[in-house]
Structures are given as structure tokens and as C-alpha cells.
Amino acid sequence: MLRGNALRRCFSSGSLKNVTEELIPKLESILGVENVKTSASVREHYGHDESHFRNYPPDVVVTPQCVEQVSEVAKFANDRRVPLIPFGTGTGIEGGVNAIRGGICMDLKAMDEIKELSVENFDCVVQPGVTRKALNNFLRDTGLWFSVDPGADASVCGMVATGASGTNTVRYGTIIDNVRNLEVVLADGTILGGTRGKGRRPRKSSAGYNLTQLFVGSEGTLGVITSACVKLHARPAFISAAVCAFPDVKSAVQSVVETLQRSIPIARIEFLDSAQIEACNSYSNLNMAKAPTLFLEFHGSAESEVAQQAQFVEDICHSNKGSDFKWSTEQDEMNRLWTARHNAWYAALSQRPGRRGFSTDVCVPISHLARVVDETRKDIDASGVFGTIVGHVGDGNFHCIFCVDEEDPKERAAVQQLSDNVVKRALAVGGTCTGEHGIGMGKVNYLKEELGESTLNVMKALKRTLDPNGILNPGKVLDM
Ligand SMILES: Cc1cc2nc3c(=O)[nH]c(=O)nc-3n(C[C@H](O)[C@H](O)[C@H](O)COP(=O)(O)OP(=O)(O)OC[C@H]3O[C@@H](n4cnc5c(N)ncnc54)[C@H](O)[C@@H]3O)c2cc1C
Ligand SMILES: *[C@@H]1O[C@H](CO)[C@@H](O)[C@H](O)[C@H]1NC(C)=O
């Protein structure tokens, strides 16, 4: 146990906001000494995610082993008014885990059980330490898979907390469509056995308010998600992938719209602009034509089915001046392609070594997508800042990836301006300031314009009801 000077010495870096004589010993008595860490390096490790936001180390990092410990820590934090920040895998890109007011970071990785797999019901229950790749490895021999794919190997509960999606959404839905029930620990330590009732997993229900959905996208501000019952899908028997280059953004997006209009059950349809293609070529050693490009994937239960889908889309792409439509069912070829897409973020960053990645994430009605992407590209070019555009275009969702030199105030301001402009454009056409990354610390100020005062006030009232002392991830999502 640490006391007095010894305690203070541990916190030599960063400012300590919430450390009292009592804090550490109490946490150690709940969790065991080995599950309470206060070294500067550990605190720094947990003070940030993958975003450009600066490091805000928590005062202490704890690793609960079970829901009862989560509950006890929450109860104590609530009694003493100490911030409590849930931590999944730290792959977020809006500064969700940064401890802006210090406090207790709760790393949930040790709770990593996969339980109650039901092959007949297409669902299973995961604890918060389970990542999507771990879940899919576990499911390998069952014929089932978990579809939501943000690229990064995020924790499934962290994905629930951010309202994540990614490629695949166009066919299988976002995490919002793929959760059946959640176990949540509230700010005062109350364990909600299930937002739908403990152990329940109906495919549908009209029983009261949808509390499951309330916690989707709550970013650690309403409760700690300690397990999630998620939907699974039958693994497609046949998969094929394709790429197609276009003379301009508009023709690429028009092909997407026509594909959706014909109800072709496309599994993924991703857009990469020419700057991103160039980055992927050099990072992943490919030689794709430097042009706006669509990456596509088709799923089906027979080979003829995926072949037919690909043929339909090829015709659509050709009629929109798409050139060189290449499709393949070769596993290696498909892996190469999707690995390149999943590495888009790192590929963009590799173009400007030493800079931090800054991502925007807007979602607009598809009818406005081509124009918004086009205007955004022109805006980036005029600014002189390096940036690429990638998009889950089947959903009207796209990101700009900027490389920013944090030491250069002019560049930082230019990137912030570009990011504000994208949001403005999205809101002006009836879209949203975030399709999937969440609000975190960077987008708090856009919410009022997007939602309007009364809707925002309902959100604030919910926050006050569930977390009256404001201990859960304070300063995130809402300005409170
Ligand atoms: C290269 C790259 C590509 C990405 N692409 C996509 C993409 O295509 N689509 C997409 O949606 N996202 C994408 N992301 C963002 C990221 O993967 C998601 O936001 C993911 O959902 C975060 O999960 P996590 O477990 O890492 O959460 P963390 O980063 O640990 O936490 C994120 C937020 O959720 C809260 N939280 C975490 N776990 C819990 C819990 N158990 N209970 C309550 N609150 C919790 C945290 O407090 C924080 O506010 C990408 C990230 C990277 C680095
Ligand atoms: C409630 O919300 C969840 C999460 O968004 C969703 O998956 C589910 O279908 C909704 N309805 C019910 C009855 O749970």
C-alpha cells in the first residue's frame, strides 16, 4: 500500500486530480494490489486512444475480474465523486477514453469470457474483454460469424459503447442492429442484469422502452457494459470481391446508388479516393490505377449467386464509366484487397511520417453523397493539407484522414477548419456529424446544432437521471 510521499512520488507525471489518502487502498482492497496500477507509464498508456487528442492520463488504472468488482468500484467512485472511465481496447478515434478530468480508468480486458453460444438462436454473450477477432476465431467451426467490422480489433462492448459499424453494414447492419441484450453497471454500482431482462434473448419484443439502444453509443457516460448478447449470422458459403476505378467521384457514387436501387445484396461497398489509392499502393505494395475506386464484396450461398451479383454490379459500373472491373473468388487476392482497405488509416499516415492521424466521420443521405465528397476533396486540395477520403459509401458514411503535425499551430488550425467544414456540409444536407466514431471529446459542440435544443435537453436529463453525480466519463458526448 502506498501512503504519503511514496504515493505522491508515483504520480510525478501529469496532474493528479482525484488522489486522496483513501483512494488507492480502497481500490486495492476491492481488486487486489495486482489489479491497481499507478505508474506514470501505465497511466499514460491509458490516457489516450488512436486519435490526435493529447494524452490525459487517469490517476489510476484498475482491472476488475468480475461484474461484482465493477459494481463495487463504481459505488465507491460515485460516493467519492471520482470520475470513472471504462476502457475497451483503446482503438477509438474521438478521444473517448482520455481522462480529461483524471479519475479511475477501468480496463475491462480481464473479463474476456464468451458464454452461452446458441447456434440455433444465432447469438452469444460476450464479456467486455472479448474483441471482435477473438469472437470470430471462437466461432470458426460453428458456421456462424459476428458481422460488425470496424477494421480495428476493437472490443465488442466498446463497439456497443461507440455505436460502431464499418464495412459490411450495408448488408448486415451496424452494432445497433446486432445487440439483443446488455448487462450494465450503473454509476451507483447497481447491476442491471439485462436491459431486456436478465438472460432474455428474444428476436423481437415490444416490452417497454428500448434500454439496450440507450446504451448503444453512450460512450461510457451512462454505465459500464459488462456483457453483451450479440447477434450472429450464418457464414456465407461463397464470397467474391471486386475493384473498379472511375473517372470521378460522382460516377463511383452513382454506381453505388444504382446497386442499392436494384436491391443487389452487396456485402461491402467501399470508396477510396485517388489520394487514398496512392497511399495504399505504396503502403500495401499494390499497383491500382490512381483514381476514385470502389472495393466491393459479394456474399451468397451458391457460386452462381455471387457470380450473378458481380455481373449485375459490373454492368452498373460500366454504364457509369467504371473501367477495368476485376473480380475474384481467390482467397489470397481478396485478402490482399481487404487488408489494403483495412490498413487505409495507417497507409494514409505513412505518407507523412511523424504526424498524427486526424479523422472526420460524417454520414449523409446518399442522394447528397457525391456532391459532399466532391466539395470536401476540393476544400482539402485548396488548403494544402495532406488528406485522403475513404467511405462506407453504401451507408452514405465517409471519413477524411488528415496527417497533422501537432507542433504546427497553423496546420492544426487548417485541419480543424477542414473538419468543421465537413461537418457543416453534412448537417446542411440532413446528415450527422458522426456516422460511427462517436462524439468523444471533439464533437461535443456540434450536438446542439445537429439535434436541436429540446432533443439535447432530453439527453442531458437522461444523463442526470442515470449518473446524477456526473462521474461516468465526464466531459464526453455532452458538455457535462
Ligand atoms: C484503423 C482504425 C480504423 C477504424 N475504423 C472504424 C470503422 O470503420 N468503423 C467504426 O465504427 N470505428 C472505426 N474505428 C474506431 C474504433 O475501432 C471504434 O470506435 C471501436 O468501437 C472502439 O472500441 P474499443 O474497444 O477500442 O473502445 P475504446 O477506444 O476503448 O473506448 C471507446 C469509448 O467507449 C467507452 N467504452 C469502451 N468499453 C466500454 C464498456 N465496456 N462499457 C462502457 N463504455 C465503454 C470508452 O469509455 C470510450 O468512451 C477505427 C479505429 C482505427 C484505429
Ligand atoms: C433495441 O435496441 C437494440 C440495440 O439497438 C436493437 O438491436 C433491438 O432490435 C431493439 N429492440 C429490442 C426489442 O430489443
Describe the protein's architecture and organization.
- With 480 residues, the chain is an alpha+beta fold.
- It has helices spanning 4-10, 23-31, 40-45, 67-80, 132-138, 156-162, 169-172, 211-215, 249-261, 274-284, 303-319, 331-342, 344-350, 366-383, 409-428, 447-451, 453-466, and strands at residues 36-37, 60-62, 84-87, 104-107, 114-118, 123-126, 144-145, 179-185, 191-192, 224-231, 233-234, 238-245, 266-272, 293-300, 323-328, 356-359, 362-363, 387-392, 397-404.
- The chain is 37% helix and 19% strand.
- Strand 5 (114-118) and strand 6 form a beta hairpin.
- Helix 2 runs antiparallel to helix 4 and helix 10 (274-284) crosses helix 13.
- The two termini are 34 Å apart.
- It binds flavin-adenine dinucleotide (FAD) and 2-acetamido-2-deoxy-beta-D-glucopyranose.
- The site of flavin-adenine dinucleotide (FAD) has 37 residues, from strand 3, helix 6 and strand 10.
- Residues 53-235 form the FAD-binding PCMH-type domain.
| Largest sheet properties | 8 strands, antiparallel
Oligomer: single chain
The amount of beta strand, in percent, is 15-25%
Q: What is the total tally of β strands?
A: 19
Shape: globular
Write down the overall mean pLDDT. 94
Query: How many H/I helices?
Result: 17
Low-confidence stretches: 1-13
Bound ligands, each once: flavin-adenine dinucleotide, 2-acetamido-2-deoxy-beta-D-glucopyranose
What structural class is derived from the secondary structure elements? alpha+beta
Q: Report the C-alpha radius of gyration, rounded.
A: 23 Å
Distance between the termini: 34 Å
Helix content: 25-40%
Keywords: Acetylation, FAD, Flavoprotein, Mitochondrion, Oxidoreductase, Transit peptide
Catalytic activity: (R)-lactate + 2 Fe(III)-[cytochrome c] = 2 Fe(II)-[cytochrome c] + pyruvate + 2 H(+)
EC number: 1.1.2.4
GO biological process, one term: lactate catabolic process
